[in-house]
Amino acid sequence: MTSEQVADRVAGEAGERDGSGEASEGYQRGLGNRQIQMIAIGGAIGTGLFLGAGTAISKAGPSLILAYAIAGLVIFFIMRALGELLMYRPVSGSFSDYAREFLGPFWGYVTGWTYWLFWVVTGITEVTAAAKYVQYWDKSIPQWASALVFTAVLYLANLISVKLFGELEFWFSMVKVTAIIGMILIGIGVITLGFSDAGDTASFSQLWSHGGFFPKGIGGTLMTLQIVMFAFLAVELVGVTAGEAADPKKTLPKAINTVPWRIAVFYLGALIIILSVVSWTVFEPGVSPFVEAFAKIGLPAGAGIVNFVVLTAALSSCNSGMYSTGRMLRDLSLNGQGPKFFGVLTKRGLPLRGTTVSAACMLVGVWINYQWPGKAFEYVVSFATISGMWAWIMILLAQLRYRRKADRGELPPSEFKAPGAPWTSLFALAFIGMVIVLMGIDKDARISLYCAPVWAGIMVVSYFVLKARNPQAFARKDYSAAARESVDQAA
């Protein structure tokens, strides 16, 4: 393969580039800085925080704050590793494309299809959750009907333009951010000024006065790590926007560098305030800690407000799933590792076919809600955590391989090097490995690991079948010439 052919592949089948010299892959760079920043923020705030934190608090008490802090640091290491790769070669295939380049065609194939499945499963999960939240206001509305409406509306929005997707994510994220900041400010007022029904007991001493900071021991804290990591899933979505970001060299590093303060404010800040207003002993599994806090403060509308916020969080996640699945299917198609059917873009630069098929798969959630409305959420949630963490593992391994090649002068250096690498990446890999082991110990989370070997078997068999039919599509490619050309044109 010549360097010109490689360059054409990196720029897309049409070999298109935008005005900045970045590979456009045929997409329109319609996501501005404002939208990219809010997509990055929204990716780190979801139902894992608004609902999952209640279960985690009951298992670990105030020490959950430490679990989120350590996991947040690991997430920052992962995002900086992704950032280093994105600045080397910003493409919409993102970590699937990097796994293909640095680890081999098999790993890119598995990563692309696994991330696609992750978002389909997550979309089913979130649309199911959204249907449940609607029943808070009107129990007469069937879950399947709400799930169908939400799926259809988000699908249509993703067919109009990437800008509309960006706007939806901007406002979904704005609702979540406003709710958390409002809760923090109200909580600080209760603690410092003593107003509301919780004013007499609210105090930062609540963090250690009910059995200490580790009331369930270090073991209890460790066993919440899979819940904590689930809450951070989708933070890597900002990498998928690389092919459609208006100015990826500026917007993506800025979005990634905001990860520490986002985690500090929206996770650590919110938990510190909530656990200071309400004793950790009050929280129960399956109950939102935000609802409990609002109830303790004495705001009658609090539960309804939080329900609206978690509904928004669920729709935001489903919207992200609609967006990313179409891009992943197209990336697989362009590499010959998926049906050619998915490689076509509309005149607006949208992967219509991939998005349509993915939305159709998400409609399975409507059927599940119709058949088993009481157990729908549990039936589809088990695979999300392990498949999402697979993407993180591939990001870290690809970055380690890239850094070695760049240090040897075989590839151009990234403009956004991960600080502390390779040690930070190795630490993050070890941490993820520990979380997977803990999932195996926890009987409630173990079902996730049962699903993984089944999917792995499907991937291995399908890989060898497709490779036998089209060996060229699964041959190693040399991206170095295209990467250098991209750097030269961007300079």
UniProtKB/TrEMBL annotation:
Endpoints of the signal sequence: none
Keyword hit for Glycosyltransferase: no
GO process annotations (BP): amino acid transport; transmembrane transport
Membrane topology: Multi-pass membrane protein
Comp. bias intervals (Basic and acidic residues): 1-20
Subcellular location: Cell membrane
Cellular component annotations (GO), alphabetically ordered: plasma membrane
Residue ranges crossing the lipid bilayer per the database entry: 38-57, 63-82, 102-124, 144-165, 177-198, 218-242, 263-283, 303-323, 350-370, 376-400, 421-441, 447-466
InterPro entries named in the record: AA-permease/SLC12A_dom, Amino_acid_permease_CS
Positions of the Amino acid permease/ SLC12A domain: 36-468
Main location per the UniProt record: membrane
Domain of life: Bacteria
Keyword Nucleotide-binding applies: no
Keywords for the protein's UniProt record, in alphabetical order: Amino-acid transport, Cell membrane, Membrane, Transmembrane, Transmembrane helix, Transport
Residue ranges, annotated region (Disordered): 1-26
Family: Belongs to the amino acid-polyamine-organocation (APC) superfamily. Amino acid transporter (AAT) (TC 2.A.3.1) family.
Protein name: Amino acid permease
Species assigned in the record: Streptomyces mobaraensis
